[in-house]
Design a protein that fits this description.
This protein has one domain. The chain has two helices and no strands. It has helices at about 5-20, 35-45. It starts with a helix and ends with a helix.
Length: about 50
């Protein structure tokens, strides 16, 4: 499995790409083993 950092980086890049194409994109996160809070924070920090 990829590392947590790799998964978060990939997730952030996907979110940024989607928002660049469609600024009103709704990002829905469902995660179990990595922790939803980690994903939320990584996306939030990258977009701030």
């Amino acid at each position: 499995f990829p590392s947590r950092e790799d998964v978060l980086h990939y997730t952030v890049e996907i979110a940024k790409s989607g928002l660049k194409k469609q600024p009103k994109t709704l990002i829905v996160v469902g995660a179990y083993s990595i922790g939803k809070e980690n994903v939320y924070l990584a996306i939030s920090e990258a977009l701030s």
